[in-house]
């Protein structure tokens, strides 16, 4: 479970992580793409999915986020299946979850968690999907972008709340968005900062603000050696 993986590191029960920061690493498409808007997030390297995953294990990723949305992000369920066969780390299925069937599908594919985006769901849907997630023994990363959505996540009983620094309406990135919304999320919740995190200094500032974990995709795809970048962001090579 992703929550347990993060808590284990935050509580320093796993001595191999020591004081290191918690990083959830993202697997994207393996084909190079120059498309704009949403798709530009997708394929930023020519590495294979297996090679990316191996690098991220070496770098100490706490979990793997795997894009499966095919239209906008060029993801595939096949990527998740391949990653599941490669690693024992918790896997987040990163997709636009708008139907309860997708939660069952995620379980069947071998995912440990699903992404629930507040801007795509009503408060009732979010609460219903969270109940379904728990019944299936999964976790959910509930994503918010503003104060209203953060409140919606808390009210629904989300345990892991991610604040996306990227505005999904125009795809602009404000790296300070996670810091701005930190106090909107109760300290007993797992707070994950998403998008716009590119270097070790970013994770230092987020950790100081009480952000327990980060989700990093694009920076790892661009890196010559994603294992080294992960170690730097976790505070091991600063």
Word description of this protein:
The chain has 238 residues and is of the alpha/beta class. It has ten helices and eight strands. It has helices at residues 2-10, 49-59, 77-86, 100-109, 123-135, 147-155, 177-181, 200-208, 218-222, 226-233, and strands spanning 22-27, 63-67, 91-94, 113-117, 139-144, 160-164, 190-194, 213-216. The protein has an eight-stranded parallel barrel with strand order 1-2-3-4-5-6-7-8, surrounded by seven helices. The protein is globular. 45% of the residues are buried.
Briefly say what this structure is.
With 238 residues, this protein is α/β, with parallel strands linked by helices. Helix content is 37%, strand content 17%.
What brief labels describe this structure?
238 residues, alpha/beta, 37% helix, 17% strand, globular
Share of helix, binned: 25-40%
Low-confidence stretches: 8-19, 30-48
Task: Indicate the overall shape.
Answer: globular
Number of helices: 10
Q: Per DSSP, what share of the residues sits in E-state strands of 2 or more residues?
A: 15-25%
Euclidean distance between termini CA atoms: 29 Å
Beta strands, count: 8
Average pLDDT level: 79
